[in-house]
Design brief:
There is one protein chain. Helix content is about 35%, strand content about 15%. Strands 3-2-4-7-1-8-11-10-9 form a 9-stranded mixed sheet. It has a two-stranded antiparallel sheet with strand order 5-6. Helix 3 links the parallel strand 2 and strand 3. The chain is globular.
């Protein structure tokens, strides 16, 4: 099927574009409210696109974002908002707000949609600290946590550690393999002036010497806690051609919730060495875009914890099951490799803005404006959080 005939089907592929991009600095203490951060990023994205704030008629963010769309609309002076949605599951949302925005634009529900994420998850509170007050809020998800928190599984690191240990047992991956992921993204962060760890690369030896958080995870296997905001503007491909920036086409967008899924544990599954929800996303992205792994020049792989980078490479078919360790041992994920991953430094090296800063890097790579620009980028894969219901995107040029 040709791309033209494909885009005329019910698919959203090729019908919407990211035309504006904005971000605050990334820090450990922003010194301002999350609303102010969101507004700064949104106004910057609108200026980047050359779109007046009054033209905004849609919003999409995460259900955990504390900045309501109605307040941004009021402050922008956007009078008539026709579309708004929020996506649950924390970092698993990441790519889904862009997907929802693309659907709204493709169906004519809205014309100019702002996607945003703003957070003070270092200075205001410690995200993923293990202290959640679940006992006072006995909703389903919180009661569910009661089955395993008494046994010490309190934090995201502990939950991912359980998956990682099984993956190591099944496929022979080692702590050094996880470290190779961390070393490569910190190398990219070291040359990115916007990264928190700008100028601070690490060695594999330093990774191995970093303290244990929850075996097999060391400190340098874990993403940052960050303050900051990122926003982007989505509109139709037709309109995008007349705007300031090179359009970044949304070639595919998908969400995935697989059999036996639970948040970060999935105890009902027979096998926790893979990420079937990401496999479901992968199948949809390849089908929508009519692309294959060989068509991707660079990828933004959600790196909240290094062990989950490896099975994502497998779920998308860049390597066979169990062979991601060999991929990273060969350095194919690093600077100058076959598939450079997280060229902005990722959530380990740039900032943890729940994956929204990763989508921004995908936009920059397609535009050709990334600080660690990969040559001849036509298509970029972006993934969202793993261990939870998740999402993904393929961004590219026209």
């Amino acid at each position: 099927m040709s791309n033209q005939s494909h885009t005329q089907s019910n698919s959203i592929s090729g019908r919407a574009a990211i035309v504006g991009l904005g971000a605050t600095e990334f820090s450990k203490n922003s010194g301002r409210t999350e609303l102010k951060l969101a507004m700064e990023a949104t106004l910057q994205a609108l200026r980047d696109a050359g779109i007046d704030p009054s033209e905004v008629d849609g919003f999409c963010s995460y259900s955990v974002d504390k900045v309501p769309e109605y307040e941004i609309a009021r402050l922008l002076g956007a009078p008539d908002i026709k579309f708004f949605s929020q996506i649950p599951h924390g970092g698993g949302a990441a790519c889904a707000p862009v997907m929802h925005a693309a659907m709204a634009v493709a169906t004519g529900i809205a014309k100019t949609v702002v996607v945003y994420r703003a957070m003070n998850e270092r200075s205001w509170y410690r995200f993923g600290s293990g202290s959640y007050g679940f006992g006072a809020t006995p909703f389903f998800e919180n009661v569910n946590y009661g089955w395993y928190m008494p046994h010490g599984l309190h934090t995201p690191a502990a939950w991912v550690g359980m998956f990682a240990r099984r993956y190591m047992h099944e496929y022979g991956a080692t702590s050094e393999d996880f470290g190779r992921v961390s070393v490569a993204v910190r190398d990219f962060a070291a040359t990115n002036p916007n990264a928190f760890f700008y100028g601070k690369p690490i060695t594999l030896e330093e990774h191995q010497a970093s303290r244990w958080i929850c075996e097999p995870l060391r400190l340098l296997d874990c993403c940052q806690e960050s303050d900051g905001a990122v926003a982007m503007i989505i509109t139709s491909v037709e309109r995008a051609r007349d705007l300031k920036q090179k359009p970044v086409i949304i070639k595919a967008a998908a969400q995935g919730l697989a059999d036996g899924q639970q948040i970060m544990t999935s105890f009902y599954r027979n096998d926790i060495a893979g990420l079937p929800e990401m496999g479901l996303v992968a199948r949809q992205l390849w089908e929508q875009s009519r692309l294959t792994p060989s068509d991707i020049q660079t990828a933004v792989i959600y790196d909240h914890f290094t062990p989950f980078v490896l099975p994502q490479l497998e779920e998308f078919g860049f390597v066979k099951r169990g062979e991601a360790k060999d991929f990273v041992r060969a350095g194919h994920h690093a600077r100058g490799g076959l598939l450079p991953i997280n060229t902005h430094g990722g959530q380990l090296g740039e900032a943890y803005i729940h994956g929204m800063n990763g989508i921004a890097e995908g936009v920059r790579q397609v535009r050709g404006s990334a600080v660690n620009q990969v040559p001849d980028v036509h298509n970029v894969l972006v993934t969202a959080g793993t261990g939870v219901p998740t999402s993904g995107l393929i961004l590219g040029n026209a």
